[in-house]
Every structure is written in structure tokens, then in C-alpha cells.
Design brief:
Arc Repressor Mutant, subunit A; seven-stranded parallel sheet; twelve-stranded parallel sheet; 25 helices; globular
Length: 1017
């Protein structure tokens, strides 16, 4: 038969002849098989319908492949009128289906005039050949003018199924038909029809809310793990091990996330550390990551012995919880060493690890607990599909949807990530067009989800493949790279950055990216799941190449190149890239296992000069985290360059030729400690939108003319200089599009307070975070003759720097005035303000009006020596004080005697109070919602009220206090008393029967009145 088919299709003929001949061959074969079965042994089973359909599919594909591939042309874009008419027709049919509960009919999409003849011949042949067989389903054609013309085309069900299930048949170039296995095709059609009938929309573009931890995070196992963590262990090691084992996509990381964010665990453990390491792990990198997590800071130490000692010191006497994702090391000695070091923590510490490799569990000691994530129950799978695909339609109450959903679950329910992918597919599909023949492996539904993405989202994901697997990235910076890459399409009336953020959020909702716990409120971190990454990498590899082998095998046709390696000592950049043409992206990516700058000696001035001369099509250039010291003037030849980063390099200056890059949109030079100023002609970069010169110490001087960059959106640091050749604060006035954060430093250099008004901060409605800083936030000591003038100028300046009411975070540091401006004396001067920091405002004796700020959650005050009372002018009687406040931090308030008088209902959300070096403070307000209280360093311990919700109490550094009393604290579980050298007794401690942990250190004279065995000391 194969020979006959090959002979018949060796030369393109008419479609009528090809299909007629093929039908005759298959019909004869059927007759022969029927005759043979009649005389064969009865034990021979007849061919099933599925087998017959599969054979017919293969035969028809072979017979028609050549004809369909001849003279193929892609459909031309429809005019807006045609598109609207076609959509109207589709909507009408959808409504009819919804009303009648019928499955929507198949539709043949409009084609350009050049293909009309071929389409007409196809329909005529199918009509003629199929009509005698009777039965079947109509094919409705949509005419160019949008009117539907019913063709009396009747297709026999078997042939219709064959046509619509042939994965190799190139029919989309002739019709836009559904290419599904028949059963699944009907399921999907039924799904959409029933969703329409019962209120769910057919198409959906909005993001679906993420499934909560009670579902994907295996709440039953979570509860068992938490019970294990709270077990009382009197013997054994200090650090226990809990191992979670499951395959990729089964919810290991989601379970870790749920445990990491659990409030009870957060309140119980002194430290929580999250690490996620690749298979390149070595012991030094592991301990360095643990140190960084424990200290919440970067660590550049690489010596293993030093790192181990740092871990022991950091965990000494502390109850910690270490979360380790992707722990796949098979080395007994490795685990022995790691667990030995971690045993330095306090009793009750634990390591919770997730691994795909069950062998890893065998390296743990006998006390380790193991949890295997089995497939989700059908009930949970239904809930998952409900969340991602049903769009508000109740699956359980509809028999048809329930049946279809169960079929989906039987196909994909063993892997939650795959089921989410199918649910997302059904939720976001623009048309019911899926290639289900590829859904046979665990990664295939993800591939299908990727295939139906819009082209701009595919391009965004392809760019992400330039980073290593497991790379943790920042949303904002990724969007800037997407813009330079041309992924983000312009939308009238909207900024590219906003559109890019929308793209990112859509990918997040579709689970192509996911949150990483290694982040904070200001700087969300994200990561791509390993299965998603493999799909994206496999699709993008033709044009996007990530080199991890020192450029030894770079394909010639790639357009986007990233280097991911710890050392490039002997790499000759030009020799390795000489075969490349039209390179558009070049990035050096710092891998997670590399703690210091990437050593790239050959990335010097000479090689970069040649590199820039060759690759003039570069659009994105990222040399950050390398030891690059200088950029050549030949950079001016990169006329298409839109993104340039030299962050965290040893660069000392930028060439003036850089100012000729007329298309440059983003310039990043963060943490360049040797860089002191920008070129004088920076004002010529008229398309510049993002200029980031952030650094912890010092500043980069901006030249005159920055105010001409009217498209500038990102300018995190602006230093006002006294040098007339540098930029003045008044130039901020033209930068109306500034957004995000702005730190305005060097305000002591502004000699006329009225000059600050020209900065026009009041109209910058996109700014969310503003810092106003004098003397780098320190305290300035002036001569007596200068004091009055300095105060007046500072007060005029702060009065003129009133921000927009959209501001969410405000910090005032080193303020030299004695009173706050009038705009801070209003009862609600910034209604959207969430965080307020007042640091080093030493001359002020009264607080601004903060008690009734409706959104204020975080209040931090430091070095306001003259303030005696936190609230002095509160006159609103019954109004609630601090209605949203959650955190109150006070440091070095040497004159503070009282905070405020708390009435019932005040501070309803206050959770944590930290007071340090406030020696005259006599008492604390009775805020009943407080769960954590920290008192540090003072002459006398302030009276502690009956805080009925208090869970944790820490008292440290009251060296002269001999005794104090504790009131009834019915919820208290953790007490820590440190460095109170004269302390002899604590009254009321024995009455605190709920305390589970009592830690005392540096109190040599203290005698405990109780020896309760339930306490951990």
C-alpha cells in the first residue's frame, strides 16, 4: 500500500483525482480485509475504530501532502472591515450555540483571492465525493463581506475526522481548521459551548487569579510538616531534616513557598533562609548562599573554612529554618559536612528540602522525615481546572463540563503543571485550534501553551532563554531588555514600560514565570520553572544562544548571544565570534555560583574596539559584573544600541562618544564605585528613558542639561551640586515623566530655598518613592552664625519640595530646619503614603501630623533629639489614631518621654514595635494588636502594658536595671533577655504559662524562679 501511495502522489495532479484514487484504494482494502476476516480464524480480533481512523489518517495524509504543499501561500491580513464582519459572524454563531446548547459548527476562514480557486475546488471535490455517503456536519464558509453562505457540503464523519485530526496535513494554509483527535475536538467544543450557555465567556484575556496554597501546596502535607517542626525533641541533633520528593511540576516548590510564608513559622523561628541552587553546586557556594540569606546581604567570601565559621556564628543559639529547593547532590560526605555545620543552631532548627531525586533521601540520617507528593486527587484536580479554565462556571453543577473535565484530568492530571497549562489554554485561546497529537510527554502541554501565545509574548520568553536555568530576575529590568529587543509593541496613549509590565503580568498569570521567595516588597524577584525553561529554550535555540562552554560551539546563525561562565581567562572574543553576523544582543550574565566580578581579561579596550566595529547592529549590550575598565570611542558606531549596562564594573569614565548614540533608551551604571561623573554632552541622548546610577556610597555628578531629557522616566539618584558646571535641582522641573523612586541628595548645596520650587515635585504624579537628603543623611555641625540662615534655607526648601499626593514612600534625612513644612501639618497631607522615615532631623521638636494618615503602615524615626512626645497636637477626639500602622521603629530618641495615649480602637493593625536608645521613655501605649515587642538599650525599662496579643518579647542592653515586672501576657510564647548585667529578678515570669522558649544571655546575676521542662532555654 505504501508503494502504491508513493507512486500515486509522485506528481501533483488535480485534487479530485488524488482523493478519488485514494478513496478507491482504501475502499478496496476495506473490502479485502472484510473478506479475509470472513474466512480467517475466529480468534482474530477485528480492527478497532481507533486503529482504522489512525490508518486512514496516515493514508490520506500521504495521498494529499504533495498537492496541499504546492503553490502554498499564507493568508493575507484581513482588512478591518473584513475582520469585523468575520468576528460578527463568529459571535452570532457562538450566541446561537449558547442559546441552543449545541456545539459550534466548523468554520472555514476567509482566504485571499489568490487561493479562492483552490479553496473552491477543494470544497467541490469534498462535496461530490462525500455526498453519496450521507450524514455528517456542515462546513460554513465566511465570505469576504462577512455574510455566511451555506454550502450543502456533507462530509462523511469518518473522513471529516481524518481531515481534522491529521497533524501532518498542511491545511491551515487553505483553511483555519481544527486539528484535533476527534474525541478531544468534541470535548473542547463542548467545553466552550457549555461555558457560553452557563455564563462563562468563550474567550478570555484577563489574568486568572493564582491558585492558593490550600490547593497546589498540598495542605495536608503542609500540616504534617508543621506538626513535625513543633514536636518537642529532647535528644538527637539540633537540626532536623525534612525531605520532599516529587517530579518536576508536581508542586514541590509551591509547598516550600507556602511553608516559607506561613505566619506561624515566621513568628516561631529566629531566621528563615531560602536557597535555590543549580547542579553546579559546590560546598563553598552553598555556605555562601546560607550566609547571604542569614545576613540579608551580599557575601564575597569564597574560603570554605571561613564560610563554615560564619554559618556557625550566625546560627549560634538561634532557631533557624532553612528551605532548600532542588537539592539533588548525591554525595554522602557532602551531606555529612553540611548537616554537621548546621547543627550549630538552636534545638528545633530544621532543613526542609525539595528534590526530584529520591536517592538524595538515602543520604540523610535515620531521624529524617520523608514526604512523597503523590498525584493530586480528582477533587483537587477539578478545583485546579475550575480555577484556570472554567472562568466562573461551576464545573460540578454541570454534567457536561464535569464529564469533559474528568477526561482532561485522566489525560493530564498526574502533573499539576500540565493541567494548569491545559486550563490556561482553554482560558486564553483566541480560537479552538490545538495540535493535540504532541500531548504525549510531561512537557508537551507546556509546549502547546507556548505555541498558542501571541508572537510578542513568545519573543519575550525567547529572550529569557539567554539567562541560565533557575536565574532569578527583576521584573522591571527584564521589561527594559524586552523593550530594547523590540518585544513590546507601542500602544497609543500608553508608555512602553506599562505595556511591557502588562506582558510580564500575563506571563505570570499563565505560569510561564513565577514568584521567587528571594525578594521583598520593593523588588519582586521571579524565576522560570525548569519545565517551562526547557520548552522556551528548545524553541528559541535557532536565534538565541546561551554559551556556558567558553564560546566553543556558537552557531553561525544566532542573533542573540549571552555568556554564562565563571571564568573567561583565555577567551578571545573576536576569534570566537568572527563567524557571527548581524548580532543584536550581547550579554555577559553573572551566574549564581559566581560571587565576584567575572574575570574576562580579553574583554579589554582593544578587543571591545574591534567588537564594536564588527557588530554595528547591536541593540542590547550588557557588560555588567565584569572587570571592564574602559569603553572605546568606537561605541559611537552602535547606532541601533538601545540598552547599555556597565553596572558593577571597574569603569572609571564613560567616553564622550557615547553621547552620539541617538537611539539609546537605557543606560545603567549601578555600583560603579570608580565612576564620578557622566560626559558633558549626556544631554544629547534625547531618547534616554532610564538613567540608573545607583550606588550605596558617594554619587555620580550629572552634567548640565539633564533637564533636556524630557522622556526620562528612571533617575533613582539626583545629586544637587554647588558646582555651576553640574546639574542644578531646578532642571528636575522639565522631567515630568519621572516614575518609581528618586533620591534627591546634596540639598545643603542649594543656597536659595526658592530654587527647589523649580523642581516641581508636586506635579510628578508617577513618583512613588522620594528621599530628600541633606549631608548624605548625616548630622551637620555649623558655626553659630550660620545656624539661623541654614535653618531658614532648609525650611524654605522643604516647603517647596512638596510631592504629589500619589507618593507612597517618603524619607527625610539630615533635615536642617527646626519645623516641618505646612504641607506636613495637615491631618492627611499624603493620603496614599505607606512608609515614612524621619532620620537625623535633629533641630525639630515636634512631629508632623501623622496620627490620621489613612494608609501609613511603616513609621521609622531616628535621631530626633528634641522630640518629647510622638503626638503633641492631636485634637480629633474620637478619630482612630494610626488606623493602618503595622510597624513602629524608634531609634536614638534621647528626649522622648511618651509616645501617645492609646484609646480603645487605636492602632488596630500594629504588629511590631521596636524601640532602641530612648532612655527617658517611661511607658508604652496599650496597643492590643501588637505581637512582637523589642526594647533595646536604656536607663530604665519602660512599663509594659497588658498586650493581650503579644507573642514575642525581647529585652536587651538595659545594663543598670536590677529588676522589672511583666504583666499578664496570655499569648506570649517567646521571651529573650540579653545583656542586662545587673538584672537580678523578673517579677511575673513564673505566671507566663504559655511561654515555650525562654532565652537568657549576658545576665550573670539573674535567678530564674521556675524550671519548667517545657521551656527551651
Amino acid at each position: 500500500m505504501e508503494d502504491e501511495i508513493e507512486h500515486k502522489t509522485s506528481r501533483p495532479g488535480s485534487l479530485r483525482d488524488l482523493i478519488s484514487e485514494q478513496l478507491a484504494l482504501i475502499e478496496n482494502r476495506r473490502l479485502d480485509e472484510s473478506a479475509n476476516r470472513g474466512v480467517s480464524d475466529d480468534s482474530e480480533a477485528p480492527r478497532s475504530p481507533e486503529d482504522s481512523a489512525s490508518a486512514l489518517q496516515n493514508e490520506l495524509r500521504a495521498a494529499t501532502q504533495l498537492w496541499f504543499s504546492s503553490d502554498r501561500k499564507e493568508p493575507a491580513p484581513k482588512s478591518s472591515a473584513q475582520a469585523a464582519a468575520a468576528q460578527s459572524a463568529r459571535d452570532g454563531e457562538d450566541d446561537a450555540a449558547a442559546a441552543g446548547g449545541k456545539v459550534p459548527e466548523l468554520q472555514a476562514e476567509n482566504l485571499p483571492a489568490a487561493n479562492e480557486a483552490k479553496k473552491r475546488r477543494t470544497l467541490e471535490v469534498l462535496e461530490e465525493l462525500a455526498a453519496p455517503r450521507g450524514g455528517g456536519k456542515k462546513v460554513t464558509e465566511i465570505q469576504p463581506e462577512g455574510t455566511q453562505k451555506g454550502l450543502s457540503t456533507i462530509i462523511a464523519p469518518s473522513w471529516q475526522d481524518v481531515l481534522h485530526s491529521s497533524s501532518g496535513l498542511p491545511t491551515p494554509s487553505i483553511y483555519q481548521v481544527e486539528k484535533l483527535r476527534p474525541s478531544f475536538y468534541k470535548d473542547v467544543q463542548a467545553w466552550f459551548a457549555m461555558k457560553n450557555q452557563y455564563g462563562g465567556g468563550l474567550y478570555h484575556h484577563a489574568c486568572v487569579q493564582q491558585v492558593g496554597p490550600n490547593l497546589l501546596c498540598r495542605n495536608d502535607i503542609k500540616q504534617m510538616i508543621m506538626e513535625k517542626l513543633f514536636l518537642d525533641r529532647t535528644g538527637g541533633s539540633n537540626c532536623s531534616v525534612i525531605c520532599i520528593n516529587a517530579g518536576s511540576g508536581h508542586g514541590k516548590t509551591s509547598l516550600l513557598h507556602a511553608l516559607y510564608n506561613d505566619k506561624l513559622l515566621t513568628d516561631t523561628f529566629d531566621k528563615r533562609i531560602w536557597i535555590q541552587l543549580s547542579d553546579r553546586l559546590d560546598m563553598s557556594m552553598l555556605f555562601r548562599k546560607i550566609v547571604e540569606g542569614a545576613m540579608n546581604d551580599h557575601c564575597s567570601i569564597t574560603n570554605l573554612g571561613c564560610l563554615q565559621e560564619m554559618v556557625k556564628e550566625e546560627f549560634s543559639d538561634k532557631k533557624f529554618l532553612l528551605f532548600w529547593d532542588d537539592a539533588d547532590i548525591e554525595d554522602q560526605q557532602f551531606w555529612n559536612t553540611v548537616l554537621d555545620v548546621l547543627n550549630a543552631g538552636a534545638k528545633g532548627s530544621a532543613v526542609i528540602m525539595a528534590t526530584r531525586n529520591s536517592t538524595v533521601c538515602t543520604f540523610m540520617d535515620m531521624t529524617a522525615q520523608f514526604y512523597i507528593l503523590n498525584p493530586l486527587s480528582e477533587e483537587n484536580n477539578l478545583m485546579l481546572l475550575q480555577q484556570y479554565a472554567a472562568m466562573g462556571t461551576d464545573i460540578q453543577s454541570n454534567p457536561v463540563l464535569l464529564m469533559v473535565a474528568k477526561r482532561f484530568i485522566s489525560m493530564f492530571g498526574t502533573n499539576p503543571l500540565n493541567l494548569k497549562a491545559i486550563g490556561d489554554l482553554l482560558c486564553h485561546a483566541e480560537s479552538i485550534s490545538f495540535e493535540m497529537d504532541i500531548l504525549e510527554g510531561s512537557v508537551m502541554p507546556l509546549q502547546l501553551c507556548h505555541d498558542v501565545l501571541p508572537i510578542h509574548l513568545k519573543k519575550c520568553l525567547a529572550f529569557c532563554s539567554l539567562f541560565p536555568e533557575g536565574y532569578i530576575f527583576d521584573k522591571h529590568h527584564m521589561v527594559l531588555k524586552w523593550i530594547a529587543h523590540g518585544c513590546v509593541k507601542s500602544v497609543e496613549g500608553r508608555e512602553l514600560e506599562d505595556v511591557g509590565i502588562e506582558y510580564f503580568n500575563e506571563l505570570l498569570c499563565r505560569s510561564f514565570v513565577q514568584y521567587s521567595p528571594i525578594g521583598n516588597d520593593k523588588d519582586d524577584k521571579f524565576v522560570m520553572h525548569e519545565l517551562v525553561y526547557k520548552v522556551v529554550e528548545s524553541v528559541a535555540r535557532d536565534k538565541y544562544y546561551k554559551s556556558e562552554d567558553l564560546l566553543n560551539s556558537v552557531p553561525e546563525n544566532i542573533l542573540h548571544l549571552s555568556l554564562v561562565s565563571s571564568q573567561f581567562q583565555n577567551v578571545e572574543l573576536m576569534s570566537k565570534t568572527k563567524e557571527l553576523n548581524d548580532l543584536q544582543t550581547f550579554m555577559v550574565v553573572q551566574p549564581e555560583w559566581q560571587p565576584h566580578k567575572i574575570s574576562f581579561p580579553t574583554l579589554n579596550l582593544a578587543s571591545l574596539h574591534d567588537f564594536f566595529l564588527k557588530f554595528t547592529s547591536l541593540e542590547t549590550l550588557d557588560l555588567s559584573h565584569t572587570d571592564t575598565k574602559e569603553l572605546p570611542g568606537s561605541i559611537v558606531g552602535l547606532r541601533n544600541l538601545q540598552y547599555l549596562s556597565v553596572s558593577n564594573t571597574s569603569i572609571k569614565s564613560l567616553p564622550c562618544e557615547l553621547c552620539g548614540l541617538s537611539n539609546l533608551q537605557t543606560l545603567e551604571a549601578k555600583d560603579c564605585r570608580f565612576l564620578t561623573e557622566l560626559p558633558g554632552e549626556t544631554k544629547n541622548l534625547l531618547k534616554l528613558r532610564h538613567l540608573d546610577l545607583t550606588r550605596d556610597l558617594g554619587h555620580v555628578q550629572l552634567p548640565q542639561g539633564i533637564g533636556q531629557l524630557i522622556d526620562l522616566q528612571t533617575l533613582p539618584i539626583f545629586h544637587a551640586s554647588s558646582d555651576p558646571s553640574h546639574c542644578s535641582v531646578s532642571e528636575l522641573g522639565n522631567l515630568h515623566n519621572l516614575r518609581g523612586c528618586l533620591r534627591l541628595s546634596g540639598l545643603e548645596n542649594v543656597k536659595l530655598g526658592s530654587k527647589a520650587q523649580e523642581a516641581n515635585l508636586k506635579d510628578k504624579h508617577h513618583l512613588k518613592d522620594l528621599t530628600l537628603q541633606w549631608h548624605d543623611g548625616g548630622i551637620n555641625i555649623n558655626d553659630d552664625d550660620e545656624d539661623e540662615d541654614t535653618e531658614n534655607v532648609a525650611e524654605q526648601m522643604l516647603e517647596s519640595l512638596q510631592p504629589h499626593t500619589n507618593l507612597q514612600e517618603l524619607a527625610i534625612r539630615g533635615y536642617e530646619g527646626s519645623v516641618f513644612p505646612t504641607w506636613m501639618q495637615e491631618s492627611c497631607f499624603l493620603p496614599n503614603l505607606v512608609s515614612l522615615t524621619l532620620d537625623g532631623c535633629c533641630n525639630c521638636t515636634e512631629f508632623p501630623a501623622i496620627a490620621q494618615m489613612p494608609s501609613l503602615k511603616f513609621l521609622r524615626v531616628r535621631k530626633m533629639y528634641g522630640v518629647q512626645r510622638l503626638i503633641t497636637n492631636y485634637i480629633h477626639g474620637s478619630a482612630i489614631k494610626f488606623p493602618s500602622l503595622e510597624l513602629l521603629n524608634l531609634w536614638e530618641m534621647y528626649g522622648l518621654e511618651e509616645l501617645f495615649e492609646a484609646s480603645e480602637g487605636d492602632c488596630p493593625l500594629l504588629r511590631k514595635v521596636c524601640i532602641s536608645r530612648c532612655p527617658d521613655l517611661k511607658r508604652l501605649p496599650c496597643a492590643t494588636s501588637v505581637i512582637e515587642l523589642v526594647l533595646h538599650c536604656g536607663r530604665e525599662l519602660p512599663d509594659i502594658p497588658e498586650l493581650v496579643s503579644l507573642v514575642s518579647l525581647k529585652i536587651e542592653g538595659f545594663h543598670g536595671v536590677k529588676s522589672f515586672s511583666l504583666p499578664a501576657l496570655p499569648a506570649l510564647k517567646k521571651v529573650e533577655i540579653r545583656s542586662c548585667k545587673e538584672l537580678v529578678s523578673v517579677d511575673g515570669l513564673s505566671a507566663l504559662t504559655t511561654v515555650q522558649r525562654l532565652k537568657i544571655a549576658g545576665c550573670p546575676k539573674l535567678v530564674l524562679p521556675i524550671t519548667d521542662s517545657s521551656l527551651t532555654t
